[in-house]
């Protein structure tokens, strides 16, 4: 037996575990993104309460940060779905 055939056999045997891990990873990515965006919102509201005159700058920075976190979470979920279906 060659090393490649052994690796292929192990990959076929562990396919259900890989699918379960991909689903678990997608869930963790969604929860982490929700937690991160919640923290951004909390911090932005506290900052606006302390300095109302800077609300425009704080709001725009909050939206940019939330969009970056959402992009990373979307990328993580897509990678997990690729593992799940390929």
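^ structure tokens above, recovered residues below v
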């Amino acid at each position: 037996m060659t090393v490649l055939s052994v690796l292929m056999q192990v990959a076929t045997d562990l396919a259900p575990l890989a699918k379960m891990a991909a689903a678990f990873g997608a869930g963790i990515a969604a929860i982490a993104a929700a937690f991160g965006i919640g923290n951004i919102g909390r911090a932005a509201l506290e900052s606006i309460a302390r300095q109302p005159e800077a609300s425009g700058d704080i709001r725009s920075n909050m939206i940019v940060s939330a969009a970056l976190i959402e992009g990373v979470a979307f990328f993580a979920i897509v990678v997990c779905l690729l593992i799940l279906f390929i």
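The chain has a mean pLDDT of 88.
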